[in-house]
Predict the 3D structure of the following.
Amino acid sequence: MPSRTLYEIDFAAWTEQQVALLRAGQLDAADIDHIAEEIESLGRRELRAMEDAVMRILGHLLKLACAPASDFRDRWRESVTIQRLAFEALADDNPGLVGRVRLPTVYDRARRLAGVSLAQHDGLPMSILPATCPWTLAEIADTGFWP
């Protein structure tokens, strides 16, 4: 049976060990491959968090634009505002990721989610929602923009 590495056994201890090695300048002793994987993973997580915020914004903007019901409008607007602030914070910390947001993919997910909600609560078909995103990312993130 192959022996397991500290990376596999105790991730937190591995990170502490790697930080100490890097700070000591001992790159030859550092686990460079796993360090590189973890750094890449951090970037993917930040992008995913950014796209999740955009998806929530879009879902509620779609419902605001297409749903006849007025019961949930205040909550949808509040959710949009919260998610816009989350997106803004992520964009401030990661400006290079803004251009990597896959708006068509994120919109498709938001459209499906909004479609399920509209069908359940209002009996509306998903076909009332635009097939492609009707807004730019700048509009989606703009705290003053409402459909």
The chain has a mean pLDDT of 94.
